[in-house]
Amino acid sequence: MSNWGEGAPPAGGAPVTVPRDAAHDAARQELLNPAYHRHDPSLTQRVMDWLGEQLDHALAQVGSTAHGGAAGLLLFLLVAVAIGAALWWRLGAPRREARSTASLFETAGPRTAAQHRTAAAAHAAAAEWGEAVREQMRALVRALEERTLLDSRPGRTADEAAAEAGRALPAHSAALGTAARTFDDIAFGERTADQAAYRSLVELDQALEATKPVLTPAAGGAA
Asked: Cβ(173)–Cβ(166) under 8 Å?
């Protein structure tokens, strides 16, 4: 009776000739197919699961010690801090990205600097400081566009406007950067707007109006 092993022919067919190493490599390549892993947890999820396990372990240590135990309590605090940092990174990243890409102006039709100033003043009169700050920053940037110190470009962010305007008005470069950060902090809910924030933008707007730009020469030419 013949021995049916590696390379033995199946009934009525040719012998199997696939080497063991080649079959192993083929199986490994097949398992690397993304279709088999689309439901696998993400790296962030795996990290969060690991941190959760460490927290459970720390809580168990604290509970098993008569007086809490200094080592167990320290481990608990370290794990809690790590989890807090991971959550901050996970939830803070979208906000940081939004801050850097959100357009300064809304999608509605363009408004003049005077219209934005009027709207800002109306919000300030009603103590609506958040809207007052937004409108005043828009007025400031629109005024620079009207003076052709900035080109009218849809989608510009407050940071981009401040950086570009700072090159034409270098004496106010730092103040423009501060104004952009104020706008971002208030527009994205990280800081409560107040009258001081609004007044600082009004004063900067007035100072920019009274400042002559520094003309820079084009490449290979004179100013």
From this structure: yes
Q: What is the pLDDT of residues 211-223, one digit of tens each?
A: 998 866 433 444 4
Of how many residues is the chain composed? 223
Coil, strand, or helix at residue 152?
A: coil
**Which structural domain range is residue 53 located in?**
43-93
| Terminal CA-CA length for the chain | 99
Number of domains in the chain: 2
Kindly tell me if the per-residue pLDDT of 21 is higher than 60: yes
State pTM to two decimals.
0.53
Q: Is there a domain that residue 21 lies in?
A: no
- Kindly state the tokens that stand for 26: 């083929």
In a domain, 221, yes or no: no
> 96-126: per-residue pLDDT in tens?
444 444 566 665 557 899 999 999 999 999 9
User: Is residue 223 a part of any domain in this protein?
Assistant: no
Q: Is 54 exposed, middle or buried (0-12, 13-18, 19+ CB in 10 A)?
A: middle
**Among 93, 122, 154, residue at a domain's last position:** 93
